[in-house]
Design goal:
The chain has helices at about 5-10, 15-35, 125-190, 195-230, 255-265, 270-290, 330-400, 410-445; strands at about 40-55, 60-80, 85-100, 105-120, 295-310, 315-325. The protein is of the alpha+beta class. The protein starts with a helix and ends with a helix.
Amino acid sequence: MNCQAAVKQAQLSNYDLLLALKDIEILGKNIDITALEYIPDLSFQVTAPASTVEFNPTNLSNIRTGINGGLTAEYLQRMPYNADTGIKYSLDYSINYTNRIEKLEQLVQKIGIFYRQEIFSLPAETRTIILQKKKLFYLNLSTGSIINNFAYNVKTAYFNNLREKHILSNNSVMYSGDEEIIKAAEIKFKSGIIPEYALLDYQADFFRSRAQYFNSKQNYLSAQRMLYFYLNEDPETAIQFEDEDISSRTNTVFDIARMIENALKYDQNTADMNFAIFSSSRNIKFIQENLRPAASLQASADWNYTTNYTRSNALQGISMGASLELGYSFLSDSFINYLKIKNEKTAIAREKLRLEERLRFFKKKITDDLSSLEAALFLYNNALERYNYIMRDYEISKQRFDLGAINSWDMIQSKNRYFDAVNAFISAKYNYLLLYERINKDYYLE
């Protein structure tokens, strides 16, 4: 498995991304809920038949009884731009008797339509939806940041695992060799071939080597667990991880302007500032609408049809009307709204200052990061060159030791310099890779 494959597999169980997607889903549903304000409202009301008895206590000969019932249906359509329209139909049936056997039976039907328009203001739902959609836009951008940060964490775990694996391998070779050396030294001391101080040198070096080996083993196991945690795999699966070549990351041409643009685009702090500016701008527009005169245009038409079954006749009529209502607040509301606008403009100016400071921050940061990357590459090349020289020195030291030209302590020092140089070279390589990937994360190079 290579690094890119590890990132793809780990993304399948990216907990932060899953949470962010749930937040996006919730906000999307909230937008839908707000938009549902414009769904037609259809209502029915039924008046159950009811008996009535009317009489005058001073004249019991005039008793009136009856049954009344009705049905009302209303269709209300809320529309954008503070407009409402609707249709209403009602039906009332009644039959009444008196003790003189007089009967009055009639059916009254009414149909009415109306239209109402707020002229100078937008509905609060429109403003809410606009703000929610902008928030959704920035949330979608934040998922890119989450994916990028998570990919960096996986790459960090991947490179740490490789680094600790190679360091453990190097220390294992040193430790195994020192085990053989200490056994041979003890035999030579007992045989009187070497003095006690030489044996003590070997023993001290052996304990150093053993501690270094076990420490590197613990570091490797910890790095391995972290990588397998991201991959959601059991370490017992023993996945073979491919090494990464540093050469593919040493010839990158950095487009600083594009890198700063990317950093600002996906930066969560910058997104919060931009949303605050957008929100304050919309608030100003909303408040300014409230400063306008309130105007409401209304129009209606009603048709009435009454059927009198007792007299076998019918009456009908049509009524229409229109009105325009105007209103304006001169005192406290106006002053309060003007102050609110002033506060929102101040908030916008504050966020713009923060954006300018954020831009200055990234300009400095990118200079520092590229300088650090250049230094890391220098240290890598220096560690490689140093390793080559020390490896040659180690080979010569072994030859000189065999000839008796240097003592055991000098040989131990030469050996330790060699294995330390190997570890330093390994660390320098992965330090560069990790720093490169951090820059990739911060400025979205890929």
